[in-house]
Amino acid sequence: MKGSKIANIKLTEELTIQTTIADDGEHYISSVVANELLAFDARQDHATRSLKAILGKELTLAKISVPGTRFSATHLTLKQFDLLLSELAFSGNKKAQEITRALAGTMLWVLSCDAHGVEHNLEQRKIRYEERMQHKKQFHPLFTSWLKIDANGDSSAVNWGREVNLLKHYAKAPMKPLDGYTKEELHLINKAEIVYDAMRRAGLNHEQSLRNI
Hints:
The chain is an alpha+beta fold. The chain folds into two domains: about 5-105, Mlu1-box Binding Protein, DNA-binding Domain, CATH 3.10.260; about 120-210. It contains nine helices and five strands. Strand 4 and strand 5 form a beta hairpin. Helix 3 (about 80-90) crosses helix 4 (about 95-105) and helix 6 (about 120-150) packs parallel to helix 8. The protein starts with a strand and ends with a helix. The model has no long low-confidence stretch (mean pLDDT about 80).
């Protein structure tokens, strides 16, 4: 059984994930924390059984001691948790979709920096993450809320990729993932969203508002 330390990762104002680092250096998330976040099983004592049903019968979970107690708990590695997020998000689990969106691009940026030999420290990673989350806070209320209204609240009826690309086109912003945008490029999108929102409030429809950006 492995010893451990616990830390909290704040993804948004409302969302925090508790992770565990074992004394072998591996990072984990306990099955209890995973279930509290994602509610994949109504009974905590069946969480392990449910995880195996989702990720496969061959799934092996680590037993790690709980700091400050004599007890141990089952844990997923971060890779296993990532797979769980993917499976549940694809199945329509709203919380899994929220966490996936919050994390999108962060690891890719770190890996790209490593591949290009670009050094990055904790402060740089925090700044980049905060910039992305600030954009998400502004992006969602202004543009996506209008699209949901147009679709009578049915998000599945919206072609999100097409609509975001149309916004980028009219904003004269690069056709690349938002997570790869610079501050200046994000400013183009943010400004376009503000104009779009003003046009919709003035009574213009979706297409008219886009053309007036």
